[in-house]
Design a protein that fits this description.
Number of strands: 9
Strand content: 15-25%
Distance between the termini: 36 Å
Radius of gyration: 21 Å
Structural class: alpha/beta
Helix content: 40-55%
Largest sheet: 7 strands, mixed
Strand order of the largest sheet: 5-4-3-6-7-9-8
Shape: globular
Number of helices: 16
Length: 351
Amino acid sequence: MTNNGDVLDFNARCERMPDELFAKYIAIRDKQYKMMSTMPELTTEVKRVFFESHRDVPKPNLDKIWAFMYPMLSRNEALTQFILDYGGAESDFFFPWVMSVATSPSEALELSYNAGRDLNGRWVTNIPEQDKINYFVLNLPTLAFNRERQLKVAELARANQSEFRADGSKIIDLGAGRMAWARHSEYTGFSFDPTVQEIIACDRDPNIQPDSLFAPKTLAQVGVTYKHGDIMMELQDTSCADASLVILQGVASYYPIGVFKEAIVKPVYRNLRKGGSFFFDLQLNHISYEWSVKVFGWPEMELPEKASDAIDVVQAMRTALWDEGMKFEATYMLDNYSSSPLSVMVLFKKI
């Protein structure tokens, strides 16, 4: 079986979470006014289960985590009820994961590959199968889509490595996070070849420690330059010139389309060599996204309702760019996990 097959099998084991599951907790949140507190008996029960389930964990650790979680639970009955329904308080990893959503999104996304921090703060790369969080790992649409998107990026990087072998492949990974597409090679099938491929990555997340990403190998050994910085500023850096592939995962939806066109796409076009490609994705207003916003406090954005709406917006932008002499071919791809797509993945190729 190929490495790619391993990832597809990972998602094939998913139990597609029904819309009704998300709708239940959205309804709870919608009924709760902004200043209304959660029913005290619910938070009391979560606390009881949490402390009784983890008698082997030092109490100061539990106290610190509960001090973070309690204000969230006391204001959000939907999150509290979800924890009670799915055993979140019994997990060694669920509460630390909720904390990472607020403090380090790149760390939170590592849950896609069954990795996360436990109640003692230790990083675990293979969460035990019996932990209650595993239902979440396998089935949450956001995590399943992240695996599929990383697989697509790794496929593009491999193809780029081959296509530009003679002149050297140069990949720019913007908002790179922890570069799961390159790090989780056992799933994605990507292999570094610094003799023909240079990778420049950047991200603003201060919790990322670039030197440890590919340990025991160094960044130099895998041909990666990693910077902490802003995407727009990075695109102005001369090091991004003559790129053969630019990657922007999970970020485009945070920009108004006009800003995205002027501040991101135009500089990307100028940095790409002829025949080079630009990959990005636009989120859709899937019910699981609304659930993530209302239950976990994810950032709220104005998102297209349907894939066709997102494609129309991108096509209009591409036409405007074409009229300005910036010509891209476009390919549109939808994720395959959910009954309805969570995102539209876009590949622009510079003509």
